[in-house]
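input
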Amino acid sequence: MTKLIIAVFDGLQPAQVSPELAPNIYGVAERGVFFENHHPVFPSVTRINAASMVTGVTPGIHGLAGNSFVARDYDATRVISALNTEMASIAKTGLRVLNATTLQEILNPYDMNYVALGVGTSGNAYAHNPLAETHGGATIHPEFTIPSTIQDYIENTFGEWPAETLPNLPRYEHAMNIFLDYVLGDISPEIALIWSSEPDKSQHMYGVGAEESNHALRESDEQFGRLVQFIKSHSLEDEINLMIVSDHGYSTIIDSVDLENELKGAGFTVGSGTGEVLVAPNGGCALLYVGDSDLDVSEKIAEWIMSQPWCGTVLTSDRLGKIEGTLPLSLIGCDGPRSPDITVSFKWTSDSNENGFPGYVFSTGGVGGQGQHGSMSRYEMNNTLICSGPAFRTGERFLSPSGNIDVMPTALDLLGLPVPASVSGRILKEAFRRYNEPVIANGETHVASRALEVDGKETTYTQKIAISKVGSSVYLDEGNGCRDSDL
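output
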């Protein structure tokens, strides 16, 4: 029987949980607990946060470095997009798609199951349960299912999936039909997840707080209301716990940066050979892979990035050693076998857009005024988590740091299962009725600087990254940087 339902709203910010924009989500928040200091993992993009939700670990450990990235153990010569076809190709080589134990792998020995249904990107859906063919549970997406044997049944029973649209509401309505009747009604897995691609899809096109984006959120919330009503009408309020999560926050684009072309213009060579560099764009950040992880070339690239007006933070892999002015990727759990050599998070501001939502950022794509995410902006590194149900307290708001890495360990604890010591996240005990333990959090600020010469003038680049810690769990609050000459 289902014990936990996770409803994900892609790109939902805490400020959007209101009676006007999302009355059903707001109602659950009022009856449950709201984690106001919730965090995605960095980069603040979708697919790596989906992976962190189901593994409880940071990207450096699970190995999915971004929505686009280079998997050197798979193909070191090109940037790949984390879509289901590419991820399935990785699996066919015998490599693991995720280098960490997934939720379904943990549930399998207990004869429990996790079923995820999503209408976002195919890679997002794939990451939830890559091993469903052999370890149970399922992933359901308009383009594919794992296991593949259930795809025909779903289409024969519920009809063909509607075409993808903007906003993507017909697909979410169809998904909710399948979720209520088939996932909850027939399969009834211990943990079930449904993922809405709104408001993210509309915010990318129209911007945060635009009427089109608000409409998409309201309509998605209305479909979510069907799930709330399902729980009530089946008298399951005392049986099912509910978590509402988003994968990341949001910003508004200042301007786009064609980093690959700018690197070429600065004299660097784009490619995978020795001394060359591959660029994986990820919205508010970019991942750079230097051929053979060459230190001299990496240092030159890092110094050049610091001299650019769009540079926020610059982090490097421990494999390079120390590069002056950079901070280590390991500081935020992003260093590992598949990590980039250099990561740049673009500069951001706290200015508000025309709809009153704060946060502007440079981006690898899009145009000014559209919505984006991926950076270390505080507005992208703060997302939504709401918990409600028989296990949780009622009517409380928490400022204790939490993150998407905590979803899996908290879910396991709800089922009464042990949490692997290897996870990066923690059980969110403060939300539970049965716990009464204080949460002790500590904050740290890490600073790095480097003297530069820009346009014949001396200046200094300085970056600052703020993190919070609860025990061994680390949450990135924000990070930004600038040159003295920009002040």
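quick obs: The chain is about 25% helix and 25% strand.
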